[in-house]
Amino acid sequence: MTDQEILASYVGSFVDELVRSGVKHAVISPGSRSTPLAMVMAEHPLLNVWVHIDERSAGFFALGMAKSHKEPVALLCSSGTAGANYYPAVIEAAQSNIPLIVLTGDRPHELRDNGAPQAIDQIKLYGDYVKWFMEMAMPSSSSDLNRYIRTAASRATAVSSGLPAGPVHLNFPFRDPLIPDLSYSGLFSDGRENYEPWVNAADHIRVLNEDAVTDYANKLAGKKGIIVVGPQDNDELAEPLFALAEELGYPVLADPLSKCRHIDSPNLVKGYDAFLRGEVDSELYPEVVIRFGAMPVSKAYMLFMKSVASPIHIVVDERGWRDPTLYSSDMLTVSSVSFVNSLLPAVQSNNSTEKRWLHKWKAINQTTLTLLHEDLGTDELFEGHVFRELGKLMSENDLLFVGNSMPIRDMENFFLPENSRPTVMGNRGANGIDGIISTALGASTAYSSSVLVIGDLSFYHDMNGLLLAKLYEINMTVIVVNNDGGGIFSFLPQRKQEKHFEKLFGTPHGLNYEHAAALYEASFERVWNWEEFSYAYEKSQNHHGLSIIEVPTDRDANLRLHREMFAKVSKGTAIVLQESFKS
Q1: Which of 6, 464, 478, 547 is the most buried (most CB within 10 A)?
Q2: How many Å apart are CA 42 and CA 12, to the nearest integer?
Q3: Domains of the chain, CATH where assigned
Q4: pLDDT tens digits, residue range 511-560?
């Protein structure tokens, strides 16, 4: 075999085994040292290849695809700092348990640490943020190499998607020549006799034994409690969880990025972030907290937990130990669905005392939702109202992707759809503002219609991501809430430091995003009232490709309107509690 045939056999076997193991998409950042993998990936008939010239954006695009398709996505770049630009996306994948298979081309060993161009130390480049790292062998004519490379591909796919899911990193050193022989007859078939994966890896689901189930059922008996559901996308959890909540008489506080958030259940409490911001009466303090998955977005909930006097705090999270409150009394790394299904037949219905406890939560929640829906009585563009409008305009099959900082918090309180309920996603692993556009575009590849709500600084931070919408004609509506700076800092103590606030935190930029829309051939609308917003949104739904809607707001006015709204909620819920005491 020639060197180019050896290279083709080696790389072809690896790519083919990725596909056989379930990888359908590969995102490639162009470069030289990754040429063998890039060319063979483009050649494989069952692999969808997406090319993006910006590595940081490409990393988040792959992350979004893996998030929405719920399967591993391969991510490929060249040697040098190219792989370092994937780091933010790798961190987010690790923190939010998204399966990525990161493949980096590298210089051969003789060209390392001696001044060769585009060469850095890529060994364990991502540290502990990947579940598995492998420095791959060089291509050769060894008879065992085909078994080795196919096993590595199977293992990479299995490890990345196994609970808890996350990124893996394989580093490929290649010598010149870098061009594989794509006409080689065994390109995708060397070492294969059938179409099954090389290695079948079954994921292990951890469950509680019968004694533990009985113990937890006894712990909950006769207690006033709450169920908290963090960000999660498991379609099988909601039905048994709400059945358990009904049996126990517990309210369910569901994060806006949880599949449990938009379920029709009398036990669901959507307004908790708003009414927990005020002074909370001890009548609402639980004796038991059962939390499923990661912490919810709500800071008000975390502060509420600090005021509760040491309840039984059970955390059920098969994806690892996640408890920033440090209040957990029981940490169970078991399947949430199996825990609920095991516990449901073992618990006894709570008596009328505990049912009255649930009634108080429901009454306060209903008052809160009514007040959050009320008109503010002003013509000013209130940022939270963006989500009120989307609650009326979006449909069941849409994707709503939400940026960090203020958008995710406004969605928490003001996105209250009564009819159609779109899928909601966001990047809440590391909670950063980087890569939001790219992630949303990647996620939107699984949907026919998608909307991204993002702040102006987050939009600026990832404008390079818009290129993918142009190149691949991806349909997405981007709503830019533009308050000319870092709006969330107006809600933080830094706001009182007037001498340095605007320079260090407000950071006004004065950018005209209409020019960015023109650069990437997107439609653009700037709206000044909600009638214009609705019209622009409907227009975007009939536009093929990328649409950008800018909502200009004022930071000081937005702060004032938020405070007025939450003060009104606090006053209203206090009245409800007073009435509950009389009854």
Answers
A1: 478
A2: 11
A3: 3-173 (3.40.50.970), 212-360 (3.40.50.1220), 385-553 (3.40.50.970)
A4: 999 999 999 999 999 999 999 999 999 999 999 999 999 999 999 999 99
